[in-house]
Amino acid sequence: MTKTSKFTDQDLVVFFSQMLNDYRKCEKELKLKTASEIYGYLYTSLDREMTSAAGYFSNLDAQEREIVFKTFNAIFYALPIYHQLSPIEQEQFKVTPISVAPINSFSWFQLDTTEARSWIKISQLTGSYGNKIPFNSPQREASNPSSTVATIINSLLFVVGPLTLFAMWPLMASFVPSDLVFEIIVCSTSAATGVLGLLSIVNLVNLWADGIERMWHHEGWQKPVLELVTSLVVGLGSLALFCLVPGQFLLLVAFWGKSLLALATLIITAIATPLIGASMGANLVEHCYSNKEAIDPKDPQRYGLSDSETQHLLELNHDPITVKCAIVALRSEIAEIQNNDDPTPGFFNRHSGSGKTMQVLLDQVRELRRGTIFEVEVGDLYFDCRMQTNPSVELQPALLN
Asked: Where along the chain do its domains lie?
């Protein structure tokens, strides 16, 4: 296990996952009943990560360790074992250090495991109500038809599209068919290209609408601008490549053979080729744009806090660390609705069917980032982001001294 010298947002996600996992096990396996006992056990596990030579957080400096402790408290005070206490009990809350063998014998934060980084796994730990499909269950893929449709469209764009556009001309050149077979080939090529062109239009409109939405909600302008530029470059490049070889072939067939079908295919393909290329370019950016240290590496700016947003939250007396923890919980709920760890669906997918629920959750994320709301409930977790009511900004002296 590699140690870290900086507590990144991605570390916060895994921290969140492992702490919730240990909390659930405290209730079921260790039979710890009180908030003070559970806090003491979880803190002891964290302290082991800080002080042990093999601990993941042993290389952190004092400032980074303080962030970890604040994150620990922000998560703990969102747990039902604490927020179900009465206000008087919360004010009189005392930590009881407890010596219990750790659940994970090697390391509390198993940061190299896939499950700890999985949004689906985290959603299983938030205590949300409803029908939960177990992590790694085959039902997840089968119960997500939208994911299957997206896979088919991407396969068409990335595989069938290029093969249809750039491999058809040697087939025609090396084979001299009868008029009927020739017409079938031309009609099939025209139909396939037209369908791919229409799919590309739908895909581009969805991506560009999502990009406009991102810029409107200050979720980063870099990704939509990069998608636009890449789609234009690849689209124009595809058109130029088409004109060099297959376009010239179809033009010769249309005029020398006086074939209206070849002429129609030439027109349709000339229109569809840049659209298909643009869609492929935009999808390439969509899949490659990432930041491994972000809360959501596949969508780094939508679920993160910029420096200006952090400063604005502090001015509103909101705790940015608690806000991030709440965002992690909401992001896991979006994944639960999706039934996978794929990126957040595009604009139109979130405004129809079950996607509307994802849009509601995403709107809550945006409101938390803007500071227009200060509390959110996800499953049995309750996050109060106000500093004056959230003890996460204070360290527990009973255990730190």
From this structure: 1-117+297-401, 142-288
